[in-house]
Structure formats: structure tokens, C-alpha cells
Specification:
The complex is a heterodimer. Chain A is mostly helical. Chain A has a domain of 30 residues. Chain A is 78% helix and 1% strand. In chain A, helix 5 runs antiparallel to helix 6. Chain B is mainly α. Among the domains of chain B are: 64 residues; 40 residues, no CATH class; 39 residues, no CATH class. The relative contact order of chain B is 0.05. The chains are: A mainly alpha, B mainly alpha. Chain A: InterPro entries: DUF2157. Chain A: This is Putative membrane protein DUF2157.
């Protein structure tokens, strides 16, 4: 492989497309023959964290009767606090922009601590009903802890836990599992709440841009927001009051489309286009059923290849437009 | 053999190298932009999602064209429907050829859809032909799959075709051995291992002596496929359960019986991942490292399947601690290495490749669930809506 890459670099140099000092730098770097296991080791760290927290969670669940609640709660609290202690000790402190730990190890420690504290609060409520019948509080407190940690320690994973917590407080399940099982909104009221929550997240992200607070979190917020709005609108498009949601989806898609240029996010762009396209098709079908188009069904079938060719040309145009706007020549 | 314009194709690979250099910071973005404008090249989609999107659109287009033709030929299609399926395959190949030569598409998504759709149509057509004239014969279908996708890959270089070709070759070999050899069932694992080993050595040799980059990705994929196949062919779980399901379940009260040479397969199960891991670190082969790691995980799964040593929760906790300790010491050890194996981020690989994925996993694994409605369960589950640190799902 290195051989072929060097060959390509040589061609670039021969064609006078890169400068000589660049070429020598590349050659020298390749000669080091680095085999970086950075990503692999980080992945292992993450895996160990997942395994450990899952194992501890189940252990607690199973041994509630034998060890005694107070001991278990105490142990859990101790471990959590130790984790937090190390995190606070090693973190440079809150900053408005990116503030990473000096050692990536601590990112995982923060995540562990947050998850354990979620378990702690949940256990407390389960066993002692600390919050009584204010069940929302039991969700809200871990959410606040995670949001605080996300902003203080600058951790995206924790932030996404916090957002799911906020959604859970409103009665929504917005994690990917439910997303893929298409169980996000099992009734209409929930889908309205979801739409409103999505719009709120969007507004917060825009406000965060304005006050320069953790701009790199915006992708997470906007992703959640886009999916919430998109799914809520599409679910409602298939329902009785489809027309206004078609309009909302259209406006939202147009807005996100422009936004994706600004923050140069390809994933946002793709999903916007996808939701827009799916929504548009459902909208068309609803229109056709509304005007009783069934009689001309076979004529309609004949036009499908041309419709698809048209959409393909449209997509190619959109992508070219995206490439031009972001001034970065190719989307990777 | 290759359908594309050679200079344009060469420029695709040069552009890829330039992009790598841009990503790793050796050349500036502006320089890459100018350079990329100067190189005329084939049109391809480098972003996977966009490519998948175009692939889906291409599938829709292809099927709607097929539907269109079927509608036109509806009257004439009494018994000659086979002819139409062959026609569809022909259209698919023709469209791909046109796209490669005239429209300069290479890995654009649309062309992938047409070539894969054409192969699928061809397989259906062959299968139906055999069903009409003789018994259904799957061997013919798999052999056609192997041949058609190999030739298509050699001509069009779409990497997905390699996977199809590998599946086709493996499938036809397995089918031949299993159906037409008397001792086929007994030697099937060993034959598969032999096949995978030969394929691995072949693709490795080819990779080393590669003068042009055209077949690089395909050979790499074939190498990975052979590694996985080699491991699975020797894996105890796979051998035992496959042996069981191939011999009919009613014999053994639905419990798979012990297999002959069990010890040998147990040895394979654990030695192969270890060899993969060590060898990959030695030869600096990232793909092999990942395959080795996944194989090791699967080996643990295999072991736990038949020997219940520890309860799962204890195993999870201890495993987590052990992995953490291992990783911690590895990081300590490789932190300051300047060459060779190191924890330092390579300029050519993205150090934050997993960060977004991790956020996703965290949200799905530990995301807070809404409270269970009070009316439904007033007492027990009031606050139990938590995922409780991963204890979700199981309980």
C-alpha cells in the first residue's frame, strides 16, 4: 500500500502539483513507518467502560437482596465520587470553546461517572422513593448532572445522554434504538411534543452560536433536532391533518438545507435532503389520493422512470451546489 | 479489460492520494482545490451516504424501467417471461457500460445499482431457466454469480462486486464438496480452510506485486474475506452448529451433538485470533488487527456458549476491568514511541474517527427512557424507567 501511495505522491510531484519540500516531508514521514493504534486503544477503553458499567449495573440489580441497599448505594456513590474527583482534578476548567482533557482517558472516566450517577439516582428512587411521586425529578436530576458535565468537561457522549434525558422528561424516547424501531412517537400528542422539542433544540443551537458557547456541540443538537422534526412531520404526514405538516417539513428542510452549508456538515445535509425527499413523496401521494387520482393509475405508472430520472438529476444538482457553497471541493 | 478511460482512472487515484495529503495536513486546502480542478477525472461519490442514496435512487430507476418494459410487453409475455428477465439483465449491463464509458461514472452509486441489479436479474433468470427445464439447481446460480461478478469486477472495479465474487466462489466450492463428495461433510471445514488459506496467500502475493492501484481495494477486501472465512471454518461453534443443522435436528432432541476432532477445533478457535493479532501487529496490517479482535470476541462467545464458567455479569465486570488494565498499560507503553507501533495519532488516520459514533452508542445504550406512566404501575416501577447503567433490555 505504502508503495502505491508513494507512487501517487511521486506522480503528483512529477506533474508539479506539489512542492519539493512538501514531497520530501511526506517521504520522510512515511519512512517513519508509523503504525498508530490510537483509535484502537481508545476503542478498547470505551469498550472496557461499557463492559464494566453494564456488569456493575446487573450485579447491583441481582444482589439487591443480599448485600443490603445502604452498602450498595454507598459503594456506588463512592465509586462515582472517586471518578468525579479525578475528573475535576485533571480538567483545566470550564471554557466557552473546546476544552479537552490532557489525556483522552479522562473522557471515558467522565462518561463512567455520569452513567454511574444516573444508576445511583435511579436506584435511590427505586428503593427509597426519595423523590416521592415526582417521577419527573428522578429523570431531571441525572439530566442536569449530565448536561453540567457535558458543558464543564466538554464531552459529546455525555451531552447526548443529557439530551435523551431532557426528552425523557417530556415523555419521548429519542435514542437511536427507538429511532430505528420506529417507536419514537406512538401517539399524536407525543409527536407534537417531539416537534416542539426539536424546534427548541434548534433555537438553543442558534442561540449558542450567537453567544459563542461550545459551538462544536451544535452538530449534536442539530442532529437531534433534525431527526425529531423530520420524523414528527413524516409521522403526521401519514395522518389526517397532513397538509400543515407538509408545509412545516418543507420550511424546516429548506432551513436545515441552508444551515448545513453554514456549518459544513455533510451528515446534516444528507438527512435533510432525505427527509425532504421522503416527505415530498408522501405529500404527493396524499395529494393524489385527495383528488382521487386512482383512475389514472396506469398512466401514472408510465411516468415513474421519468420521475426518477428527474429526481436523480435534481440530487446531482443539489450536491454540486453543496460542493460549490462549502468551497471545499469534494464531500468526503 | 478495464472499461474506463485509463488517464481519467489514474487521476482518480492520484486525487485520492492528494486528498489524503490534504487531510493529513501536508498540503493546504487551497492547494488541493486547485490541484483537483486541474486533474480531469471520472465522476465518483466519495461520501458513503451520498453513494448509498444514489444507489437507492438507481435501484428505483432500474426497477421502474423494468416495470415500464413489462407493462409494454404485457400482451406478448405469456410464456416468454424468461426472455424479459434476460432482457432486464442485458439492460442493466448495457446501462453500466454506457455509464462507465460515456458518462464517466465510477462508483457514483447509480452505476453500482445497475451492475448489481443486472447480476441479480441474471441470477434470477438462470435459476428460472433451470427450474423450467430441470430441477431447481442452486449450483448453477452460484457458479454464475461467481463468474459474472468476477468478470464484472475485472472490468468495472466496483469493490462491492468482489464481495459477491468471493461469496460466489466460496458458495460453489462448499456446494460442490458437500453435495458431490461422499466424505464431503466430514472434510468441509478443512476444505474451506484450505480454500481461504489459498485465497489469502494469493491475494497477499498479488497485493505485494501490484504495479497499478486499480485492483488494490478489491484484493484487500478479498484478503479480509479469506481471513474471516478461515477463522469461521475453524471455529468450534460454527462447525458444531452447522454440522447439526445440516444433518437434521430431529435426531438429537434439538441439542447439537459433539463433533469429531473437537479438540482440534477448540485449538483453532483460540489460536487463530491470537495468530491474527500478533501477525497483524508485526506486519502492520490494520484490517487484520480488527478481524483478529472481532474473532477473539467471537471466540469468547463460543467458549461461553458451551462452558458456563462465570455468570455473565461477573464476566462483564471482570472483563471490563481486564480490558481497561490492558489498555491502560498499552497506552503507557506506546505513548512515546516515535516509530513503529505507537499511541500517537497517525497523520494519515483520523484520530476522532469514533467520537461521533461513541456519542451515538452512549445515547442508545445509556439514554434515559421516559418514566413509566404512573397509572399503569403505581407501586413497583415508579422510578424504574432508567436504563440503570446498561441493565436495560435483559430485565
Amino acid at each position: 500500500m505504502a508503495n502505491l501511495e508513494e507512487q501517487a505522491a511521486q506522480t503528483l510531484f512529477d506533474k508539479n502539483l506539489i512542492k519539493e519540500e512538501q514531497f520530501t516531508a511526506i517521504k520522510a514521514y512515511r519512512a517513519l513507518n508509523i503504525f498508530s493504534v490510537h483509535n484502537e486503544l481508545k476503542f478498547l477503553l470505551y469498550l472496557s467502560m461499557l463492559l464494566f458499567t453494564s456488569g456493575v449495573g446487573i450485579l447491583i440489580y441481582q444482589n439487591i437482596d443480599t448485600i443490603g441497599h445502604t452498602v450498595l448505594l454507598g459503594l456506588l456513590l463512592l465509586v462515582t465520587l472517586t471518578c468525579f474527583y479525578f475528573c475535576f482534578k485533571n480538567h483545566p476548567g470550564f471554557k466557552k470553546d473546546e476544552a479537552p482533557f490532557p489525556n483522552p482517558l479522562y473522557d471515558y472516566l467522565v462518561l463512567t461517572a455520569v452513567i454511574l450517577s444516573c444508576s445511583f439516582v435511579g436506584y435511590l428512587q427505586f428503593q427509597y422513593q426519595t423523590f416521592g411521586t415526582h417521577y419527573g425529578l428522578a429523570t431531571l436530576i441525572p439530566t442536569i448532572i449530565s448536561l453540567f458535565c457535558a458543558y464543564y468537561f466538554d464531552n459529546k457522549s455525555v451531552l447526548s445522554i443529557g439530551i435523551t434525558g431532557m426528552a425523557a422528561y417530556l415523555g419521548l424516547s429519542v435514542d437511536p434504538k427507538h429511532y430505528f424501531e420506529n417507536e419514537m412517537f406512538n401517539n399524536t400528542t407525543l409527536s407534537y411534543i417531539g416537534l416542539a422539542f426539536g424546534l427548541t433544540l434548534l433555537l438553543w443551537a442558534l442561540y449558542a452560536i450567537k453567544i459563542n458557547l461550545k459551538k462544536h456541540f451544535n452538530l449534536v443538537y442539530l442532529t437531534f433536532s433534525l431527526h425529531l422534526i423530520g420524523i414528527a412531520c413524516i409521522v403526521n404526514l401519514c395522518d389526517d391533518f397532513w397538509f400543515p405538516f407538509g408545509l412545516v417539513l418543507g420550511i424546516a428542510a429548506y432551513y436545515f438545507y441552508n444551515l448545513s452549508f453554514q456549518i459544513r456538515s455533510i451528515s446534516l445535509f444528507i438527512f435533510t435532503v432525505l427527509y425532504g425527499f421522503v416527505g415530498m413523496n408522501i405529500f404527493f401521494v396524499q395529494m393524489l389520493t385527495a383528488i382521487h387520482f386512482d383512475d389514472f393509475f396506469s398512466i401514472f405508472l408510465f411516468t415513474t422512470p421519468f420521475y426518477f430520472i428527474g429526481t436523480i438529476l435534481g440530487f446531482i444538482k443539489l450536491i454540486k451546489h453543496f460542493n460549490k457553497k462549502t468551497s471545499d471541493d469534494s464531500i468526503r | 479489460m478495464i472499461a474506463y478511460d485509463k488517464t481519467l482512472l489514474d487521476n482518480v487515484y492520484i486525487d485520492q492520494e492528494a486528498n489524503r495529503l490534504k487531510e493529513s495536513g501536508f498540503i493546504s486546502k487551497e492547494q488541493y482545490k486547485d490541484l483537483s480542478h486541474e486533474l480531469p477525472k471520472l465522476k465518483s461519490q466519495n461520501n458513503l451516504f451520498i453513494r448509498i442514496g444514489f444507489f437507492i435512487l438507481g435501484c428505483l430507476l432500474y426497477s421502474s424501467i423494468c416495470g415500464f418494459i413489462s407493462l409494454l410487453g404485457l400482451g406478448a409475455m405469456d410464456n416468454g417471461y424468461l426472455f424479459f428477465i434476460y432482457l432486464f439483465a442485458f439492460i442493466g449491463f448495457g446501462a453500466k457500460e454506457y455509464m462507465s464509458q460515456e458518462m464517466k461514472y465510477f462508483g457514483f452509486g447509480l452505476d453500482d445499482a445497475f451492475i448489481l441489479g443486472a447480476i441479480l436479474a441474471l441470477l434470477i433468470a438462470v435459476g428460472l431457466t433451470f427450474e423450467q427445464n430441470y430441477d431447481p439447481n442452486y449450483l448453477a446460480v452460484i457458479i454464475v454469480l461467481a463468474i459474472a461478478s468476477s468478470i464484472a469486477y475485472l472490468r468495472y472495479l466496483n469493490t462491492s462486486l468482489v464481495l459477491l465474487a468471493c461469496i460466489g466462489i466460496t458458495g460453489s466450492a462448499a456446494y460442490l464438496i458437500f453435495e458431490y463428495l461422499i466424505i464431503g461433510k466430514a472434510i468441509l471445514p478443512f476444505a474451506m480452510m484450505l480454500l481461504a488459506g489459498t485465497g489469502y496467500l494469493f491475494s497477499k502475493k498479488k497485493l505485494q506485486n501490484l504495479a497499478f492501484p486499480y485492483y488494490y481495494n478489491g484484493l484487500k477486501l478479498a484478503k479480509g474475506f479469506c481471513l474471516i472465512l478461515f477463522y469461521l471454518a475453524g471455529n468450534y461453534y460454527v462447525v458444531r452448529e452447522l454440522n447439526f443443522s445440516l444433518s437434521g435436528e430431529f435426531y438429537y432432541n434439538a441439542v447439537s451433538p459433539e463433533i469429531p476432532f473437537a479438540l482440534l477445533f477448540w485449538a483453532f478457535t483460540f489460536i487463530i485470533p491470537a495468530v491474527y493479532l500478533i501477525f497483524s501487529l508485526k506486519s502492520k496490517d490494520r484490517m487484520m488487527l480488527w478481524i483478529g479482535f472481532l474473532a477473539l470476541c467471537f471466540s469468547f462467545f463460543t467458549f461461553r456458549m458451551y462452558h458456563h464458567v462465570l455468570p455473565p455479569e461477573v464476566a462483564l465486570t471482570i472483563g471490563g476491568l481486564a480490558v481497561f488494565a490492558f489498555t491502560y498499560f498499552s497506552i503507557k507503553k506506546t505513548k512515546y514511541n516515535e516509530t513503529g507501533i505507537t499511541f500517537k495519532a497517525d497523520r494519515f488516520t483520523n484520530p476522532n474517527a469514533f467520537s461521533n459514533l461513541q456519542a451515538l452508542v452512549a445515547a442508545s445504550q445509556f439514554g434515559l427512557k421516559p418514566e413509566v406512566k404512573v397509572e399503569e404501575s403505581p407501586m413497583e416501577f415508579g422510578g424504574g424507567g432508567f436504563s440503570g447503567g446498561g441493565s436495560n433490555g435483559e430485565f
